[in-house]
Design brief:
- The chain has a 4-stranded antiparallel beta sheet, with helices on both faces.
- By secondary structure, it is α+β, with helices and mostly antiparallel strands.
- The protein is built from 5 helices and 4 strands; from the N terminus they run H-E-E-E-E-H-H-H-H.
């Protein structure tokens, strides 16, 4: 029987400070509330912890799924980085992290996910792993990133990738 370890807030802070690669931050699956635009759940070794992190001030908050967004609502009222306004438009500062430890953790977490996805792609399509070193591959993925920023998540990959018969 596998048991999952639940960590304390202080242990998570220590892992953040030490830039522990076991620590990840991302949205839980199946969330619908707009509140999650400003929060990420804490994961250690892929196991969801009972904590979330505010993406504005990087505060660690105790949270369980049955809490819903109550913890977020309370934190938003007290968050020093949260500036109330009549507009629902996010400020430019909300798109980047000022906390380098959290930023590095997010980058490392994303990099691991990309590496796993690329390994699966290469194995599935019988491609060499060093394809990622190619200038063309880097240009292609750079263009995909630009396009995804423009289109957002509302467009499926099948809608934007051309058919192989139309490439020339």
């Amino acid at each position: 029987m596998v048991t999952s370890t639940i960590y304390t807030k202080q242990q998570i802070r220590d892992m953040m400070q030490k830039e522990n690669s076991r620590l990840e931050f991302h949205k839980p699956k199946h969330v619908k509330s707009q509140k999650w635009n400003n929060y990420l759940q804490v994961f250690i070794d892929g196991i969801g912890q009972h904590f979330i992190s505010c993406t504005k001030c990087h505060c660690i908050l105790a949270w369980k799924s049955n809490d819903g967004t109550n913890v977020m609502d309370k934190h938003d009222k007290a968050c020093k980085q949260h500036l109330p306004s009549a507009s629902t438009q996010q400020s430019i500062k909300s798109f980047y992290s000022t906390n380098t430890n959290v930023n590095k953790q997010l980058i490392n977490s994303t990099k691991r996910k990309i590496a796993d996805s690329l390994a699966e792609c290469c194995a599935t399509d019988n491609l060499p792993f060093d394809i990622v070193k190619g200038v063309g591959f880097k240009a292609f993925t750079g263009n995909l990133l630009k396009i995804s920023r423009q289109l957002g998540s509302s467009v499926s990959i099948d809608e934007i990738l051309p058919d192989s018969t139309t490439l020339n």
